[in-house]
Write a structure and sequence with these properties.
single chain; 399 residues; mainly alpha; Herpes Virus-1; Leucine-rich Repeat Variant; 3 domains; 3-stranded antiparallel sheet; 3 strands; 2% strand; elongated; ARM-type_fold; U-box domain-containing protein
Length: 399
């Protein structure tokens, strides 16, 4: 920065971006921010003042005409001053990074720094993205979440920091380089990851699910995907979330599906109870969440291994749940997946065929054939009918 940029009066800087205020507005707490920055903060659902952390009894913002006039006068007095540049942005982010990295910084100050980073990371301009990459924010945040001793204790007063740090990590992941995620392969960090999944809030569990999903989708983190899929305690915790039919259940099912991207993970997931967990979740009949199609597609992947078929057939409600999903007027994708899974298990298990027929699958298949479903779904329905009828009459199974 040139000398004039170094001398911007403290009161003329936005506390969030640390840049010169362009449109100063004041909250009920008396703190002033640039309008664009504080509006993003409030739009993200924050109900506190970023500087004082006081709750806002009145979220309205008031233009600070006096301060705007003073800034205008100051700019006229210093014609050499240039508006904040890329250099000031780098310096602002570097300051925030140093604040987070310092062991001497208090938890409260670190939390405030994270809140500012969260707001800045929402501004997806190419330059800001390069700044975050250049300053290695992702490795630092991952280290803060999974590498610090205080995190491993899962202290209640530290959970807000964890939630916000994970939120920032997820915002930075789309920048492209997922290599830093591989630090989770370290034994201590993996243990913290599992502990957070076990003890964390619903928000933390959801964020961790998104992290696993990202790791499962990149060749850079294929080994990490394998390690996560074979971590029995983590798989158990994921299945627990699925079975509880809670807010994070849908994300947990997505994680099971994502981990299935590696064939070698499927056996581990089945051993961990993934099939039983998915069936329990989709058979609960919960309203307001589209879990049926997601669950059926996940079961399609799990029954590709023999143990997955056996787990489904041995589940007390497994085949019946599939039959109930065969004819869903408002969800043709779910119907197609259910028919596909039934073709697989009924082709190999006589008990599955008998149970499906007893549960009324023939009627549902006939209704499905008379519906407006796709030709692919109808073709699969005919295949299943042919399979069931051939087995009933003792004729050899035909393709």
């Amino acid at each position: 920065m040139n000398e004039s940029q170094n001398t911007i009066p403290h009161l003329f800087r936005c506390p969030i971006s640390l840049d010169l205020l362009e449109d100063p507005v004041t909250l009920c707490t008396g703190q002033t921010y640039d309008r664009s920055n504080i509006e993003k903060w409030l739009a993200a659902g924050n109900l506190t003042c970023p500087v004082t952390m006081q709750k806002l009894h009145d979220p309205s913002i008031v233009p600070n005409h006096t301060l705007r006039h003073l800034i205008h006068q100051w700019l006229q007095m210093d014609p050499q001053f240039d508006p904040p540049t890329q250099t000031t942005t780098i310096d602002s982010l570097a300051f925030l990074r140093d604040t987070l990295a310092s062991y001497e910084t208090t938890s409260e100050i670190k939390l405030q720094a994270l809140e500012k980073i969260s707001v800045l990371s929402d501004e997806y301009c190419s330059f800001k993205k390069s700044c975050f990459l250049q300053l290695d924010f992702l490795p630092l945040l991952l280290e803060l979440v999974f590498g610090r001793e205080e995190t491993q204790a899962c202290k209640t007063n530290h959970m807000n920091f964890i939630e916000l740090a994970l939120c920032c990590i997820l915002k930075l992941l789309p920048l492209g380089n997922l290599e830093p995620l591989n630090m989770i392969k370290e034994e201590s960090k993996l243990a913290t990851f599992v502990l957070l999944f076990e003890k964390g809030s619903s928000s933390v569990k959801t964020s961790l699910c998104h992290l696993i999903d990202s790791a499962s989708s990149s060749s850079q983190t294929q080994e990490l995907c394998y390690i996560l899929g074979h971590c029995h305690k983590l798989v158990h915790e994921i299945v627990q979330v699925v079975s509880q039919n809670c807010e994070a259940s849908e994300d947990a099912i997505k994680v099971i599906s994502a981990l299935c991207s590696l064939q070698s993970n499927k056996e581990s997931l089945v051993r961990g109870g993934a099939v039983e967990g998915v069936i329990t979740c989709i058979s609960s009949g919960s309203e307001g969440r589209n879990l049926a199609t997601l669950g059926m597609r996940t079961l399609e992947k799990l029954v590709e291994v023999e143990s997955g078929k056996e787990a489904l057939v041995n589940h007390p409600n497994g085949v019946e749940t599939l039959v109930n999903m065969v004819f869903r007027v408002s969800d043709q994708d779910c119907s197609e997946s259910a028919v596909e899974v039934l073709i697989i298990v009924c082709g190999d298990f006589g008990c599955a065929r008998e149970e499906a027929i007893e549960a009324g699958v023939l009627t549902r298949l006939l209704l499905l054939l008379q519906s407006q479903c796709s030709n692919t779904t109808k073709s699969k329905a005919r295949m299943l009918l042919k399979l069931l009828r051939s087995k009933q009459t003792g004729e050899p199974k035909q393709g």
